[in-house]
Structures are given as structure tokens and as C-alpha cells.
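So, can you check this record?

>
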Amino acid sequence: MPLKADTITKDYVKDAGVFADIFNYYIYGGRQVILPEQLTERDSTKIALPYGADGAVVPVQKFRDVQKLYAAMTDGKIEYVLYGAENQAEIHYAMAVKNNLYDALEYAGQVEEVAKSHRKEMRQKKEQGKTSADEDRKTLSAGEFLSGFWKEDRLIPSITVTIFFGPEEWDGPLSLLEMMDVSDPDVLASMDNYHVRMIAPAQMSDEEIMKFQSSLREVMLFIKYSKDSENLSRILEANAKRFMEVERRAADVIEAITNSGIKYDESEEVVNVCQAIQEIRKESEKKKAQEVAGNLYRMGLDIEKIAQAVGYAVETVKGWIGIEGSTP
């Protein structure tokens, strides 16, 4: 992924509203279950998580492009889920291994931090003069002592979704088994698979994309039809109200991924994508007319007929060709 596109998509997906929209779509089919205010993000390298039976909060290294902790009250208790987003502008043919590694490292890190929090707690109790006879002193089993992970400890679920920002269909493997050439059913039955959770606009119906509530809807629709001018026009017209007020960061993503030539002032908070595309097409039509006019002039056709052929005023055509006394 080019650095510019990588930076722009990460900045966009980090927005709590967009991030919540991704997982509300993927997990809940567009229902607004995850609220932006229920998501917590720390700095770019650490995120504090409530690990261990004692509820100790410890920092853990963050691996994904964007990762947020979701906390919600369920049946009288707080439940946590780690959501991670991976942004791809190009197809990654080992995505199943990449995401599987991220999730495995996350869980391994949780086990390590649980053990660390337990050791810290036991050390503090020892320093405070508490003995094994204390009522709150836990007697460890051999398995708990060996792993550092107590029987009552629980991991926080980690869910990774890949957002493919490319306009083409994702043709890479979407599971570990797809990356292998195994036909023996007994071998397959003994293996654990890992599936890539994917959002790819080219493989989504318009109805599916419409389930997004944030500007991700416009981003996905535009990317999907970015190489199909006829259908892009249809989409822009059908969703004109929203495309006339696209937040700038979403417009940044659209331009970085599609290179459509959309121009706008960086100080603008919203971008009228419909108007920008119309201006691009008008400029493109003008350039084509200029080329045709030049070719016809070199073939000896008179200016009046050239102007009629390209659909522009005679004085304008004279300006293109460079005839003295004309105006462009």
C-alpha cells in the first residue's frame, strides 16, 4: 500500500464513528449496537486492558493498523471486546496468516500480562507481610503455577476485520486452508482453520453498502464504481444529498485510492463530490475537444466547421488553435 494511502486510510478508520460503523456492519448487519463512545483507544503503541482475575489494568503492545477496546454493560456486568481493523489498498495473498498471527499474538500477550499481574499482586502481598494463612491468599494448582493463568481467568475476545479499499474483487485466499493443497479428509479434520473477515466494496451489493451509516457508505460506493463512469454517475445522482456533503477525510480516502482528480481546498470540512466530478468531466471533455480541433485544423478544415464539430464557439476554437485576435 502506498504510504500516502496507508496513512490516509488509517487516519480515517481511527475515527470512532467510522470504526464503530465497520463492526456494526460486520457483526450486527448494520444495527447500531456499538456506540462510538463505548470505544477506547490509547496511544499508537499501547492500549490499557483489564486483564486477570484481579482486574489489573496493564499496557499491551498494539499490532494492528487500528485497534480499539469496546466496553459495554451486559446483564449487570461490563463485557470487553477488542476490535482490530486492517486496511488494504492492495490484495495481500497471505492475509489469513497475517491476521491469524495478530490474533495469536494478542492472546499470547493477554496470557503473559495476566501472569505478570498475578506475580505483581503476590509480590505486593508478600511485601505487606501477608502469609499463606491469609484468607485471600490463593493456593495455586500445578497448572496455574506453570502457566501463570489461573482457572478463573478469561481472555478478552479479539476480532480482526480487513477493509479492502481497492475497486477490484479480492482474489486472495480468505482462509488458511485455502492457502494449502490438502485433499486428505482425515488431515483436514485434524486442522483448525482461520477465516479472514473481509469488507470489499466490489464484492458487496449496493444494498449491503447502504447498511453503513457513516461516510464509509460513500467511500465504498465510490470505490466500487470508480472504474465504471456510467454506474458512478447513477450512484452519485441516486445519493446526491450525501455525496454533496462528504466529510473531507472521506474525500481524502476516495482521492488517494481512486486517483479520480477530485480537487478541493484542504481547509474545507465537507466536499461536494458531485460537483467535483462534474468539473473533472467537463475539463476532460474540453481537452478531448481541443485535441479534435487541432487534428481537424491540421487536416485543413475551416474554423467554422471545426467549431460546429466540437460544439464550441468559433472564437474559443481560434484560441485553442492559436489564431491571432481570438479569445480562449
